[in-house]
Amino acid sequence: MKIYISNQIPNQIRENLPQNNVTYLNSSSITESDYSQIEVAWGLDATVKDILNQNDHRLKWIQSFSAGVDYFPKEQIASQNIMVTNTSGVHSVAIANTTLLYALFFNRDLNLALDMRNQKQWNDKRNYNQLGLLTKKRWLIFGTGHIGSEIAREVRLLGGTTVGVNHTGHSAENFDSTVSDTNYDSELKKADIVVNILPLTDETHHMFNADFFEKLDHLFLFINVGRGPSVNTADLIDALDSGRVEHAALDVFEEEPLPSSSPLWNYKQVLITPHNSSVSSEMLPGVKEVFLTNLKSFLKDGKPSEKIVDLSKGY
Amino acid sequence: MKIYISNQIPNQIRENLPQNNVTYLNSSSITESDYSQIEVAWGLDATVKDILNQNDHRLKWIQSFSAGVDYFPKEQIASQNIMVTNTSGVHSVAIANTTLLYALFFNRDLNLALDMRNQKQWNDKRNYNQLGLLTKKRWLIFGTGHIGSEIAREVRLLGGTTVGVNHTGHSAENFDSTVSDTNYDSELKKADIVVNILPLTDETHHMFNADFFEKLDHLFLFINVGRGPSVNTADLIDALDSGRVEHAALDVFEEEPLPSSSPLWNYKQVLITPHNSSVSSEMLPGVKEVFLTNLKSFLKDGKPSEKIVDLSKGY
């Protein structure tokens, strides 16, 4: 059986894969005749897209490198009855830790410390009320899946209150309460911190727009660790300018890499990280483990066993 | 009864104090004749030191503004049978939250994000092994009192292992294990993060010196949220230069304010905060509550009831 490993997959997890009856190909080693023989793709790149466009291909399963599969040609894949699995859960702790870092950065006014460093000048003028704690903060978290639940777990451990937003308002682990995505207005007014960790779909595209921000009186911190296009960047900037949103921490952007011309770079109250909130020394072993578990099942039963994406929903 | 409120005490907690049979004086309102009549001092300043030098003063109790009383003339106070109470416990959560921030800052390589901001230039070159999580980190915490225990509590909630160092190695709440302050060498080699939260005494002065740092093979992060003079700064800089200590986060310094000429400002791997790790919107109400509790007891029984300092130990 032939498996294609896409350019997305880092070298360090391509080693020591099971070899029984399996041939691994990559973008350098693949030949014309392989296109119709590959049954499994690990990751998505131009070659996988080429295979999908062949009339006679045998691709049955694509294991995504990422948790989100918004960049997959989902309709085409669904119409060809190909299964897609993601790496949901692998990134949860790193994203949750990063989310705590964002909250602590602004609660402890770390910009003051960094200004001191730039100027080599001590500044201990104390505004007691400016420095906060994570206890008693109220978090409104859009997305109650693996990652949202891990964020909520860590927030609650440190004394915060967690309200989750999902489709139906169904209860979810580690959330003190939940509301539906059509019924969160009153929660928005009470929140100190809003986090987006929703998958990118037609419904969530530009969900955080002027209409959303106008519902706020004052938000201490807006965090996006989901997908960039869920936020209308111009509208977020307006909300920062008007003071409705006091701080923002953004790991993802409508355009990535974020261009040097972006006005976001000029805002001291915006913390920008390079789409790495999910990255950690534990990420690649986790990604590999998901692939190996699903590959074992595929070799035995002809299909992967875990983290199967519902292509109609997009996650 | 006359109570002196020192210049250390912020205005916002001088309001609404009990008025029955009590007169409050400050550095502007105090007169020569008051020096021999004041029984209580809230905070320590030059005037309180002047009172201590009077032969005929009646001072019986000093309520410290801070948790540490290293800057008190303790021998003189002890010889005059004056009681000292501190604010131990009031600062614990803020210091613990700040300690998590330090650990996350370097684990998530936030310097990269801040360099991006300075240069308005995206950089997503991923070194997967450079980014860490708080889970599975091993912390060696010098000091297992209120603050050390709160740091350990929060660290453990997020999956870390906590080893405490105290005088005898007695067990302490929230610590997975403890060792004595003469027996921590093997723990030092295993630690990822070392935290100092010991009070400053003759024993702890320059305790973190070349001898200490030479026992390390490689430490990810050294944190000082105790007192500056517990660290020999020149020796810490040598340890940073040699790579034994990879990062440091310092809230306190041998000389405060830290002078602009300090070489510490030049180290990107050193995070400097202006002795504010304990400050938060909850600090002043907490400080006031301790004073009011002790004042109530003093007015009734002639002595304060809680957070009494052992002047022979210095904490």
Automatic annotation (TrEMBL), chains A, B:
Domain D-isomer specific 2-hydroxyacid dehydrogenase NAD-binding span(s) in chain numbering: 103-276
Alphabetical keyword list: NAD, Oxidoreductase
Name assigned to this protein: D-3-phosphoglycerate dehydrogenase
Gene3D superfamilies: NAD(P)-binding Rossmann-like Domain
Lineage: Bacteria, Bacillati, Bacillota, Bacilli, Lactobacillales
Provenance organism: Pediococcus stilesii
Pfam families registered for this protein in UniProt: 2-Hacid_dh (PF00389), 2-Hacid_dh_C (PF02826)
Domain D-isomer specific 2-hydroxyacid dehydrogenase catalytic: 36-306
Protein family per UniProt: Belongs to the D-isomer specific 2-hydroxyacid dehydrogenase family.
InterPro entries found in the cross-reference section: D-isomer_2_OHA_DH_cat_dom, D-isomer_DH_NAD-bd, NAD(P)-bd_dom_sf
An example molecular function term from Gene Ontology annotations: oxidoreductase activity, acting on the CH-OH group of donors, NAD or NADP as acceptor
